[in-house]
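## Example record

The block below lists the input lines for one assembly entry, exactly as stored, with component labels intact.
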Amino acid sequence: MTMLIADLSLPDVLKTFIEEKRNAKFLYPPQEEAVRRGILNGESVVMVTSTASGKTFLAEVAAISNVLINDRKTIVTVPLKALAYEKLMDFKAYEELGIRITASTGEYDSDDRWLESFDVIITTYEKLDSILRHKPAWLGDVGQLIIDELHYLGDPERGPIIESIISKIKLLGLTPQIIGLSATIGNAEELAGWLGAKLVKTNWRPIPLREGVYLRPFLSFNDGTKIRVREVGDPVTSLAMDSLNGGGQAIVFTSSRSSAVKVAKQLAKAICDSQSRLIDVEAASRTAEEVRRASSSKLLGDELSQLIRCGASFHHAGLELEVRRLIEEAFRQRIIRALASTTTLAAGVNLPARRVIIGDYRRYEAGEGMVDIPVMEYKQMAGRAGRPGLDPYGEAVLIASNDREARRLFDLYVNAEPENVVSRFFVEENLAFNLLSIIASGYASNMNEINDFLSNTLAYSQYRIASNVIQRNALMRRVDDMLKFLIESGFIEESNGEFAATPLGLAVNKTYIDPYTANDYVRGLRELNGKANNLNLLFLAVKSRKIPKLRVKRGEEDKWSDALVRNWSRLPLMPPTLPDYDDDELNPFMEELKTATMMLDWINEVDEDALLKQYDAQPGDLRMYIDQLDWLLGAMSELARILKLRELAGRIGMLRLRVKYGIKADALELALNLEGIGRTRARELYRAGFKSIEDIANSTPAKLQQARGIGPTLANSLIEQAKKLMETGRITRVPRDEEPSGDLSDYL
DNA sequence: AGTCAACCACTGTAGACAGCATGTC
DNA sequence: CTACAGTGGTTGACT
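Predicted structure tokens for the full assembly:
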């Protein structure tokens, strides 16, 4: 007995909208079950059902009905910025019902009060946590919280953020309906119990998914079918081509960037060599050109465009975001038919393919060697298989090289249940971060209130803290240790059992950096006062454990250890005595110095391709460093201000801007104020004698075009912009000559 | 002398969230 | 301190 949209207790406008605009007349079985459990009547529900089983759609309907019927707000929280924007696009359709929808992420918009006027607010976990720290008045209007990708609760760093969100909401006395969504969770009952939610868990899929193992030349599926795959090279290529020839698309997951590139090359060759017309050559060429232009690295752009011409590509975090988005879009439009990717795509935006090939089920992990990937991750990748509307089925394929391995893979992955989600809340860093957060934001000021906060966490119920005395004592000792650490760091104070954040602690809380990093920064800043330069400030900034470091390779160890030793006394937070040369102890410092030095070269306008080559990095890595340092240097500057190190605060502010634009101080003003001007054009303008906004405002299009890289359109726009800036007086000024710019050798 | 296969030692290994202030069509 | 693939150098057999 199918449940019809028309029968649901929803406002008529919404029902009509769903039927006409969303073209849905009835519910899928999992949706039906969720409705019976009361998801549309305010009941909290955890839905663990496959991708494309309509849980997102149902959550949308629940959100809109919450807004329309209850006149309350809905918050949707997701793990990735890209997902937030994807959800925003999905929700936008409902704007014609008069519903106001927005997304708020760290980069998108940050004024909490401004969110007041929206009904549906989509955020990342961290952004929502940050909003909860500010406690804007409109939180009282929130009647519903939708947590997407609920299995992130098990993520070692991000899971505790979700726990903290839930606990803070309870402490605020809010009782929103909670809707948790995930495709793969082992202990779904437990999580639902913790959230006080009903559980809907099914394997139902609109498109059947078969999972199987390929053992040359046969591909055996868990539904008993077995097909022979025509061999056109190595297993991965054969499997992909087999799917392509049948009219599908393929995604190959690899365990390293380099193998993603390698596989993509093989796929491109196979497609271009193929007799059958597998791609739209013209569209592929157009996309190839687009990608080439979008890539700031010529090398990478050329490599990619060559592959895309043949309808294949690779995808990993070494690529810039814009390039990745272009590739994803081309795959969606079937211009790219086969994609080789690292885990970027496994957990990312919605990008299904008929056949998903798990190229490596083992991955290198530092300190552990090659490890089998978790079942959870496999299921996440497998869930990408099957594109609604295009594919009659989806297939996920593992590759075995012998009989025994084939059987093992069936046991290990195909027939396995995903791992249980286990809270990491009581890990030191997470605990310190969240304790400071509740004390500084006024959620707790004594042990009783801290206990209230902790008792709402998943960890508390998972570790049976309430009932297990030994567990409780061990974990409470850790809480004490962390409180002590926060006191010693000068972030909180205690008197008569009452805790309060210091101005420094408030700043750490506000800037959202973790207390360990903050403590390093505070100590480092005090030490550098009076002898700070761009190198040692970058070195300090990069020390945050949140920043992955560039790796020092075998051949360059001498170079970096030498530079390190010569700089020893000028660098912050160094051990008083030099560790032994051959020791691994030197390595972390060398990595920090190498990373800082790359960014030093970046702000001194070293050509990007040359820079990346020299440091063996890729454009996406550089963007990541710029992004992270923009945030961390901002926080560091704020800490310096609180510490009354005014000169240092200003200097760091300047450094931050230079990192953001990758430019020396003299031409920064141009890049900073003018749309369409980055590090390269700013330098060209400067060299041609246009050194300030005034110079440009007083120039003519013809004169401006004498600078390299400035065409007629841009020249006109620049003059217009400059004139406007002069009129409004809104020029962001930059202090001159703050520090002579030089490379590493100038600091030795 | 030049070529090339076979072998061996060495090297490197995924990803991505967060602040603030202030204006603006 | 785990395992694997790719790389680059050396060796030694052969033309």
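Residues 256, 258-259, 262, 360, 362, 364-365, 367-371 of chain A lie near DNA strand C (CB under 10 Å from a C1'). Chain A has a mean pLDDT of 92.
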